[in-house]
């Protein structure tokens, strides 16, 4: 009989946001995310107290998964960020910094949560309307006929992760690899399933050794490679097995075994395997692959007949292989392989990269499967590089649905904040009456919203640089302090779209006293310069919405009740 | 062990504590409460009933209140927060009114008041609501009144949703739920669609976290949260086989692996036979509740059959029911039906299976709800579920009371009454059956019977006014109730007390001139003053649930005040009751036993 315990009463926190300790925790979290943001972001090292694996990262996804929060509000924000990155891979830090900024600024402005939430919602609609409209200046059409914008997107994604430790040439190389892999994975007309990109990592090689290979790369033991060298390089038939071919009785599955007297089950099964092998050889198969183990006798038999045998392939490789070759994965050893189940490969190649011997299986037709080999100097960097590359590829894929990108480097945020400030000041009275709040409240909340947007742009600063905004196009400028002459020189804004002109008036964003300016409508840019930094459009729109929605929710929390039983 | 203190005071302190929690969550501007457990579970809610049930209430009085509240919630599925507010205000009123009397008389006085209120609940309440509130409400949406944008349903749903989620979420949810209802009912506006959604809500929604809530939408057909294991393109109507077990389950010993000398070591005869049977049925799709073995997948690949496994069995049951799938007489049990379409479906980077079914009365659609994280998602789901149970309650109460002048006639009578409201005699008295008039068409029914009223205090103001001017029962208890009833709109406007007074003044001035109501435009004006709460949309709530709320609170007050002593007993109550009938923990008037 179980013991009946008296339940303890729940612990109740009243108005959690007015609690100093809570505010401090929020500020700490904001600092953590803030300091990771951008190409100059500070790295975070994650390790537990009992030793073991150490991770160095500045990616929100990796960082937040490793951290454990005790506050329900922070848990909520973390969950929102993680769920966002799970869907879109990008803009996790943006979501976090913007959401926490909205919370802090909203609280600081002293507005009721309901008013703040209504105004935020209204401003969000303004943002969404502006960003989805045709005449939006921060939006760039991704032109698939040229590779420039794709390269820019990939390059921005790679350079924004300093933990990859890449120099300029290396990041260029990686960005071009990502675009290459992406373009290969896009199916051509006939096939309608999207291709796959697999990643193989190699530690200790220089980054410049990274490459993209069409088809699949399978690691093979060095000893085997000798036989493979004299294999013919042409197209071949392939057969795939999911069932274990180890010859153990226990692998057959749940069934009643009925054994005739005088028959050794192991021998019988081996004979069965051999028959299978014979049949396969008769059918002229060149490659024999199995997810699990293959019996050594069968292996030997097949090798003698000149077949290439690949065992212990693993599920992660088996399915792309089936997709690439069109082969059916056989599940049973008890029936002969039907002719339909054989697949085709375009050929075999043996590569030696670093210490590893890799067998490349080439696709025979249009199957869009390819493998990226990533090399880096050590394990932690390699891990970050792998995450970054997968992220960047996802960002590129998102452009297929919505072929747009947003200008990066903080320019989108400053343009957006200037636009919102202008729009809401020009329509303050109508908007305020529609939202059932006073004009002053509306303007205060707008200020909080714009500040939060600008603070995201300011998060790019980690070295006490000066961030400026010009008062014509509202783009973001970074001043490189020159120690010798007291002047600062600009060439272009941080996204590279606006060039320095003499009549461009600028204000400092991170010096509070110099921040005041009259609202203005960001002027359109008339030039055909391509921006150098691009961010994902789809991901950022969702991030913006998720951040506002989460901030609304957090601001509206009046009680936290913790069940301590 | 009995506590020697004023029972009224004890009640008030307990109810006051509950009120404190609830008060901040009232209305669209109210906040939310987060419940967390050390196990990591979180619940984010503004829903009064959920908040109060999630608290571990220990105090016997609190438990009594919760019991009454649950009973009330079972009837109306609405109004839990108002219940607590009204209860607290009423208790406070009673305390203030008995304050003058001496200590010994105090208890008696409060008893008397409770009894009077209870008596009023039985004979005066229906009358006051019918005379004081219903005539005004029916004038609102009647001919010449204001046309509701998006129909009365949208307003009703808006009223419900507005009090339970943040305004921005409500803006998304309200039109979405109406769309689901409209598309599912396929033009028929009767209660069938409501009860269908109500009983199958878990199968008719899919929750997606990580997307912002504006991405929520309604999808035709059923959405199954799994990807096709084998996918073969098929157009048009397709034949589907539904299985709930593995196709290779063997329940006898006859199937086995035979190790023999010749090539066919074993072939699973029965499975092959089964698959052959399936193939003879010319089935294009296999929907399975469990993971099918690899050999079935290989078979499907070779025979151009799509396979979807690991489906939710309840969804499959619903699917079978909708397409009236016939059971087959083979082992394991299978059913065959026809689907209108089957597709792959992408949602936030995950693959789903989308199948369409035809049914005579309902047109199956699925609600896709999106939210940034699991907590808010759960909130949206439970609110959407709540909307349909509220509507279900409403449509059922209509069906149960089948006394019927037709809606047209009824409108006529109510407007006649309006013009001659002074001459109403008791024979013409409206009874509550008019509130629940039967009508096959839910929306029209609500509209014509005049039993919806704008949210934001309209009911309370009208009720307050008519209580003060009615002549039923004891004036003292009526005054108490009238004062208490205002506490609900007052807490709606806690952020700006000025608004509350302004509304009240506006209302009273309107009510003092009865002829103004008759004018066609007056109805809308009367409503616009209050109805729009932030969003600019009109939201309404049913009068009958408000009526029920007042009745429940009066009964609860009576129940609380009749308790003299609380006795704590270590014995289980069920045991004690068997031994001695008088031994009751909460309503024991016999005095101390300790």
Structural notes for this entry:
The complex is a heterodimer of chains A (565) and B (594). Chain A is of the alpha+beta class. Chain A folds into 2 domains: 11-138 and 407-562, GroEL-like equatorial domain (GROEL, domain 1), CATH 1.10.560; 216-252 and 261-366, GroEL. Chain A is 42% helix and 19% strand. Chain A contains 16 helices and 22 strands. In chain A, helix 10 (296-304) links the parallel strand 10 (287-290) and strand 11. The model of chain A has no long low-confidence stretch (mean pLDDT 85). Chain B folds into 3 domains: 7-137 and 448-510 and 538-562, GROEL, domain 1 (Orthogonal Bundle); 150-220 and 371-399; 222-249 and 270-363, 3-Layer(bba) Sandwich (GroEL), CATH 3.50.7.10. In chain B, 51% of the residues lie in helices and 12% in strands. Chain B is built from 24 helices and 16 strands. In chain B, the strands form 5 sheets. A 5-stranded mixed beta sheet of chain B has the order 9-8-6-11-10, sandwiched between helices. In chain B, helix 5 (103-123) packs antiparallel against helix 23 (543-561). Chain B starts with 6 loop residues before the first helix and ends in a 15-residue tail after the last helix. The chains are: A alpha+beta (565), B alpha+beta (594). The interface between A and B is large, with 68 and 66 residues. Strand 9 (256-259) of chain A pairs parallel with strand 7 (256-259) of chain B, so a sheet runs across the interface. Chain B: InterPro entries: BBS10, Cpn60/GroEL/TCP-1, GROEL-like_equatorial_sf. Chain B: Residues 398-425 are annotated as: Disordered. Chain B: This is Bardet-Biedl syndrome 10 protein.
